[in-house]
Amino acid sequence: MFKKGEIYLARLNPKKGNEVGKIRPILIYQTNFLNDCEHPTTIVLPISTHLIDNSYPLRYRLNKRDNLEKNSDILCDQIRAIDNQRIISNPLTKLSLKEVLEIDKQISIVLDIEF
Prior knowledge:
Layout: E1 6-11, E2 23-28, H1 32-36, E3 41-48, E4 59-62, E5 72-75, E6 80-83, E7 93-94, H2 97-111
Antiparallel strand pairs: 1-2, 1-7, 2-3, 3-5, 3-6, 4-5
């Protein structure tokens, strides 16, 4: 199943208002405890190739690698749960532990919580 820190493609339509839509990369963000028990939904962070500089903590810049073909921003302010049927690819790449911990830090700022 999915693992926290992996990036896949997912269908995020239909979108509402300011949500991101279309087929796009997403970061698996939920705990592997839920991933390993095949929970029917997955908490993800959408990824955009529309880059915005100086957007900390709302975005985390990720350089292209493996099958992630373009430099991208992980949207830390767009956390959402999606049905697993929306995830449509094999993993494109995987983040390092250091990258996941930095995103955890940014999420904690966005949500005003302490890890």
